[in-house]
Amino acid sequence: MTNLAYALVLSAALAAATGPAAAQTPPAPAPQEQTPEALLRSGIENMLRALGLALQNLPHYEMPQVNEYGDIVIRRVNPLKPRPGTPSGEEPRRL
Questions:
Q1: What phi and psi, each to the nearest 5 degrees, are found at residue 68?
Q2: CA 36, 38, 41, 45 torsion: positive or negative?
Q3: How far is residue 5 CA from its own chain's centroid?
Q4: Cβ-contact 92, 67 below 8 angstroms
Q5: pLDDT by residue (tens digit) across 22-33?
Q6: Whole-number Å distance between alpha carbons of 57 and 19
Q7: Which of 12, 14, 50, 85 has its CA 20 to 30 A from that of 36?
Q8: pLDDT above 70 for 90
Q9: CA 15 to CA 4: how far, in whole Å?
Q10: For residues 73 and 61, is the Cβ–Cβ distance under 8 A?
Q11: Smallest Cα–Cα separation from 62: which of 79, 47, 50, 48?
């Protein structure tokens, strides 16, 4: 019985604390830019920006090459690192 009384007192106190305060403050006016078209445009711009960042972070690869043993080699390109010259004067065959 005392647990029920404590629960009722607590719920009444919470309702009294949030009820009148919420009723006294008027709702915030909506900004003019919150039209459906503006929200759709900003959403699409954010998605395109995220897609561009995802594509930039994908690893880049060179064209496949066949070495003298017949192995197919696909090298990863690091755009931030300068590329060294080819050790031999002969270029490998490209597929």
A1: -65, -15
A2: negative
A3: 49
A4: yes
A5: 456 766 665 555
A6: 50
A7: 50
A8: no
A9: 16
A10: no
A11: 79
For residues 3-15, average pLDDT: 65
- Which tokens belong to 42? 């900003």
> Can you read off the two tokens belonging to residue 3?
């647990």
Which of 46-55, 70-79, 82-91 shows the lowest mean pLDDT across its residues? Answer: 82-91
Contact between 76 and 60 (Cβ < 8 Å): yes
Q: Which residues fall within 8 angstroms of residue 73, CB to CB, at 6 or more apart?
A: 64, 65, 66, 67, 92
Structure tokens at 78: 């690091």
Task: Report how many helices (DSSP H) and strands (DSSP E) the chain contains, helices first.
Answer: 2, 5
What lies within 8 Å, CB to CB, of 74 at 6+ separation is: 61, 62, 64, 65
